[in-house]
Write a structure and sequence with these properties.
The complex is a heterodimer of chains A (235) and B (649).
Chain A: E1 2-9, H1 18-32, E2 48-50, E3 59-68, H2 78-83, E4 92-98, H3 105-108, E5 111-119, H4 123-135, E6 140-145, E7 148-153, E8 158-163, E9 172-179, H5 187-194, E10 199-212, E11 215-217
Parallel strand pairs in A: 3-10
Antiparallel strand pairs in A: 1-3, 1-4, 2-3, 5-9, 5-10, 6-7, 8-9, 10-11
Chain B: H1 5-12, E1 38-44, H2 48-51, H3 55-66, E2 70-76, H4 80-88, E3 107-111, H5 118-127, E4 143-147, E5 163-165, H6 172-185, H7 191-198, E6 204-205, E7 210-215, E8 218-224, E9 233-234, E10 262-265, E11 267-268, H8 278-282, E12 287-288, H9 291-305, E13 309-313, H10 323-332, E14 341-343, H11 351-360, E15 368-373, H12 377-382, H13 389-401, E16 406-413, H14 420-438, E17 445-452, H15 469-483, E18 489-493, H16 496-506, H17 512-521, H18 535-544, H19 549-554, E19 568-569, H20 574-585
Parallel strand pairs in B: 1-2, 1-3, 3-4, 4-5, 9-19, 10-13, 13-14, 15-16, 16-17, 17-18
Antiparallel strand pairs in B: 5-6, 7-8, 11-12
Helix pairs in contact in B: 5-17, 11-13, 13-14, 14-15, 15-16, 17-18
Classes of the chains: A alpha+beta (235), B alpha/beta (649).
């Protein structure tokens, strides 16, 4: 069976890189003695699939991992088994079985919701910066690809910005929905375009989302392990 | 505020590999501090990746935290980018466990495993907002101490540490904790008073309690300043490893480190008697951990950590009694989750050992490493590494025939009495190993790693004048030229310049302290890292302090010379070491005393302890001179094919 887990990456562990976190998962799976499938070949690796990489330093309440198991396991309690081997701040918040032929996480997710806490700014400036950015028809972003500078218009990838009415511990709370297709807009790139004074204290990915019939849905609804949304995507 | 985390968080976003500063290891502790507890900050003065796996530090971390009157946390040298941020923000060094500022601890305890980390020691003390010189500290400052192999000659760092510990730390940390606890309760008045009390603990050396007198460059005497302070400080030795099954909860880091696997120490000490090896001399006698305890520590450790690899560590693991059954037991244990590979970090050079390795490295077959250390049988008799050619070729043949394609050979150059013939013997051995491999593979490869020899205190070679870096470079060039045309031989070497700096610190006296301080003040940290090592800093610092490299590094010492560490003892009689030095020059080998009569080196008799080995007979299958016919040393087996048509090997 294939099991999809939703998990957090909060607190000190946000400074752990994607590859290191993958190694933590492998050890946790071994410790939990789950019947994980291994790849064939000279260097057998456990068959696990990760979602979109999270930039080191960012927090997240919406990370995903798929595990391929060689036999069926009881879904309830799997989170407890794995949690013992996972670092503090990595907590499993959803579990569901998905079909083996479900599309890969990286293929189904097409936008993400990010929350930023910005200190050294104020609400009117944040609102005005957001409005200005969204009012622009083109937002050119220059980045490097294969050693060449490329400029692209990322305006179509900016799907929405909201600013909380209240400050949180002196910080402006700004939420942005950014597309991940055709090219992922990184939180740092978005902030550069926003050009708001102040310092970003905290960046948190709140959701990874799929577009299904015009609706935004997460690959697995937190707290509802019974109905994985991806089941609808089985081809 | 006892956690610096809020101040650190924005800085970590700006530095490389921030995960090395967050702690969060499985097995890490969050000790509760209180004024009636003695708080230890255990520091490894190199990067987290190198320091975290250190078993000594982890053992003391657990033992101290088990005590109700102590709390221990860990710290590592911050990389240069974070150091710059800390200094710019006037923030001190911190622990990775609770991110507690270093100045709040009662003790800063350093693990010193390599001399080139000495400048990092100073840097860490300074980053802890403590004066680097012990004499400048007030009672409110933390006490600075150190342990580890380097502290057998702590004289070069004696200006900077308040005290050092010689030998095994398991028992002595508790005795130190009690003395410092008393001192705190009595008002923490005088630093001199607590240091005097510490100096009375067996195995604790307080440099400031001793007066050194000189005659020109020579040391005349090193004498205690108080009557009750011992004239000679001896090392501590844990008699029975079975009583110390530590670490019980080995730390599992979240980020990648060196030796990232479960480590179980199977024995401590080694009596092979290799004359260049300080570890083998100072950690005597051999104390094996019972095989049952090893098995329990391995199976429980694997379950708890989720590692799929375990290393059985010691100075020569193949020498453990019944090693074969221990390793096969681990590999075939059905209760271990999934496939487990066992690694033996220090392979003995013989076919038996390779056979064991072949059995256990079924899952992932990495390279094999052997350490013949010298290129000719004569040279190996001088250094007492009694590996016959047939042992090496037997091991290599066995490895190739069982599927290995790559192997690594470790050698030293600059050894006493070494001739160019001995040096070139290294190329010859490597060439023959590749030749053996051709019978099994198309392109076998042998990596030859050559290090410059640095004589160490408490070894028979402590009197030997180190080769100059020019001479070492000449020998390396000889080897480079000799192996240039050999396909399959890949030569690597350590920078002879760094070898020179290591030599200064290795056998230096108290006057070298000023040199270390100057190198550090001029920015010379991370000297173990080739990108940061700076020879000019060391040369200029020596010259600026009126000290000669020739005197400290390149000069042969006399029998009657007072050595800077003569007031310290690793248990070895000085006349035993001198005799071994003479034997060495006469090319006389000395067999392993574990299985042969005692040579009275002093390590057992002086401490009323003995070797603890489960088997009184030497291990099977040729074992570096024990129980084998050494007359055949130097004979090249006839199975080798000629290198060139018509030329016999």
């Amino acid at each position: 069976m294939r099991v999809r887990l939703r998990f957090t990456k909060i607190g000190k562990i946000r400074f752990l890189g994607h590859r290191d976190l993958a190694r933590c998962w492998e050890r946790a799976i071994r410790r939990a003695e789950l019947p994980i499938a291994y790849t064939e070949g000279f260097h057998p690796r456990p068959k696990v699939h990760y979602g979109l990489a999270l930039p080191t330093g960012s927090e997240s309440t919406a990370e995903y991992i798929d595990l391929d198991l060689t036999s069926d396991v009881e879904l309830s309690g799997i989170d407890k088994l794995l949690s013992d081997g996972l670092p503090v701040g990595v907590d499993i918040t959803g579990v569901a079985e998905v079909p083996f032929n479900a599309l890969a996480l990286q293929a189904v997710v097409d936008h993400c919701r990010w929350e930023f806490e910005i200190v050294g700014s104020d609400l009117p400036s944040a609102v005005s910066a957001a409005e200005t950015l969204l009012a622009r028809e083109e937002v050119p972003l220059t980045f490097e690809r294969k050693g060449k500078a490329i400029t692209e218009n990322i305006r179509p990838a900016l799907l929405g910005i909201t600013v909380d009415e209240d400050l949180r511990d002196d910080a402006v709370v700004l939420t942005a929905v950014l597309a991940t297709k055709p090219r992922s807009v990184r939180p740092t790139e978005f902030l550069a375009c926003l050009a708001l004074a102040g310092e970003v204290r905290r960046t948190c990915r709140q959701e990874q989302l799929m577009t299904i019939d015009g609706a935004s849905l997460p690959p697995l609804v937190a707290g509802d392990p019974s109905r994985p949304v991806t089941a609808q995507l089985a081809s | 505020m006892t956690s610096m985390w809020p101040q650190l968080e924005p800085l970590l976003a700006k530095v490389g590999k921030p995960a090395r500063y967050i702690g969060c290891e499985e097995g890490s502790q969050r000790p509760v501090h209180s004024p009636d507890k003695v708080s230890w900050l255990l520091i490894y003065p190199d990067t987290y990746e190198i320091g975290l796996p250190n078993q000594g530090l982890q053992i003391l971390y657990e033992i101290l935290n088990e005590r109700s009157d102590a709390a221990a946390e860990r710290s590592y040298a911050p990389w240069v980018d974070l150091e710059a941020e800390l200094r710019a923000n006037n923030l001190p060094l911190f622990s990775v466990d609770t991110h507690r500022p270093a100045p709040l601890f009662d003790l800063l305890a350093f693990n010193l495993s390599a001399e080139l980390t000495y400048t990092n020691l100073l840097n860490c003390i300074d980053l802890a907002h403590v004066p680097v010189r012990a004499a400048d500290r007030s009672p409110q400052h933390p006490l600075v101490c150190a342990g580890g192999h380097c502290t057998y000659n702590p004289e070069p760092i004696s200006d900077f540490v308040d005290f050092v510990v010689l030998g095994d730390g398991e028992e002595v940390v508790s005795e130190i904790t009690e003395v410092i606890g008393d001192w705190k309760r009595s008002g923490r008045d005088s630093r001199e008073e607590v240091l005097h009390r510490l100096a009375l603990i067996e195995g604790v050396y307080v440099p400031s309690m001793y007066e050194v007198t000189y005659d020109g460059p020579r040391i005349i005497s090193v004498l205690p300043r108080y009557n009750d302070v011992p004239a000679v400080v001896g090392k501590r030795t844990v008699a029975d490893l079975a009583e110390w099954p530590y670490p019980k909860n080995q730390l599992v880091p979240v980020t990648e480190v060196v030796h990232d696997r479960l480590n179980v120490e199977v024995f401590r000490g080694c009596t092979r008697g290799c004359r260049f090896c300080q570890a083998g001399m100072i950690t005597r006698p051999v104390r094996e951990r019972p095989a049952d305890q090893v098995r329990t520590m391995v199976s429980e450790g694997l379950k708890r950590t989720g590692y799929d690899e375990v290393a059985l560590t010691s100075l020569s693991t193949a020498d453990m009694s019944g090693i074969e059954s221990v390793v096969t037991g681990i590999v075939n244990d059905p209760t271990n989750c999934g496939q487990v590979s066992v690694s033996l970090p220090s392979l003995r050079v013989d076919a038996f050992t390779v056979g064991v390795a072949a059995q256990i490295q079924k899952a992932r077959r990495t390279g094999l490493t052997f350490a013949p250390e010298a290129g000719t049988w004569r040279m190996r008799q001088v250094i007492n590494k009694l590996i016959r050619e047939e042992d090496l070729y037997g091991a290599v043949e066995s490895a190739y025939s069982q599927g290995w394609r790559r192997m690594k050979l470790y050698f030293l150059t600059g050894l006493p009495t070494e001739t160019d013939e001995d040096t070139l013997g290294i190329a010859e051995l490597a060439r023959n190993c590749v030749e053996l491999g051709r019978a099994h593979h198309k392109s076998p490869s042998v990596t030859v790693s050559v290090g410059g020899f640095v004589p160490k205190p408490f070894t028979p070679f402590q009197w030997f004048g180190q080769n100059t870096s020019v001479e070492l470079q000449r020998k390396i060039n000889l080897l480079r030229d000799a192996t240039r045309k050999d396909r399959g031989v890949d030569l690597k070497w350590h920078d002879p310049k760094a070898t020179m700096a290591e030599g200064i610190a290795s056998r230096g006296d108290r006057r070298i302290g000023a040199v270390i301080e100057e190198v550090w003040r001029r920015g010379g940290t991370f000297q173990e890292w080739s990108e940061f090592f700076n020879l000019e800093l060391w040369e200029e610092a020596m010259a600026n302090n009126g000290l000669e490299i020739d005197w400290y590094v390149y000069r042969h010492r006399h029998e009657d010379e007072v050595l800077p560490w003569d007031h310290l003892s690793a248990g070895l009689h000085k006349d035993f070491l001198w005799q071994d030095w003479r034997d060495s020059l006469n090319e006389v080998g000395l067999e392993d005393c574990r299985w042969t009569p005692c040579y009275d080196c002093g390590a057992c008799t002086g401490y009323s302890i003995e070797h603890i080995v489960a088997s009184a007979t030497p291990p099977a299958g040729g074992s570096q001179g024990t129980g084998v016919d050494l007359a055949s040393g130097g004979a090249v087996p006839v199975t080798l094919r000629p290198r060139m048509p018509g030329v016999a090997v």
